[in-house]
Design goal:
The protein has 259 residues and is mostly helical. It folds into four domains: 62 residues, no CATH class; 63 residues, no CATH class; 27 residues; 70 residues, no CATH class. 44% of the residues lie in helices and 3% in strands.
Length: 259
Amino acid sequence: MPQLPSHAHYVVIGAGIHGLSTAMHLARKLAAHGKTVGPAGTRIVVLDKTAIGAGASGIACGVVRNNYYQPAMRELMAHCVSVWESDPEAYSYHPVGYMQISPESMHAQVGSIYEQQKAIGYESVFIEGEAECMRYMQGVLSVLARAEEKLEPFEPRPHWGKVFTTGGDELVKRYDRYGDFVELMGHFDPTGKFRNEQLDGWLPSYFGGDYPADTWTAVMNRDMEGVEEEDFPEPAYVDGEAPTEGHQPTLPPARLVVR
């Protein structure tokens, strides 16, 4: 356990996004009033039971987006984004964009979000119509392939809820329990109710004979990777010669009596 300071003027419990933000703004407020912040002045200590951002903040706050129906929330998020953008290196902020794909039934609501984003000066693009959306997505997918190529040395694991192009044996190798996952899907979703065309391209089918065969082949290819191949030995027969005629089948008794 790291050694704690002997005293503190302010103690903030929790080093998640709220705790760190509180400590930062408190330090700025004190500095604005002419006070020295630090060991030689006003000391602010942030305590956490594990590590910085080790809880929900490290998981949920991987996404910074401004895509809300409520105007007040939208303005708040625009302000938050401006804070992240003020010092991307210090905040480890890497903007990559955010996309919302909605059905026609949400056309009016999404259009309202876009108009309100424009009103507050938040940059966004609104694409309408099936043909235009398809053209836009084709451009995105071409960028995705190049991004995956750059990430290949790190062997990243794709997110099942996102679009990716990695598949086949390469996908199996990156998940140690891929076979267990497929087996569970076959058990809990035997009719494929929660499948779609995208999942069908990544996972074996539940129907027909290809499901067990493909799964077995994929798992064996993964487990046998790097193992030297050996030739099968010549067949050996008890009498030294291969039979020239087929064997007569042995039929079970017509009646089985158990004593």
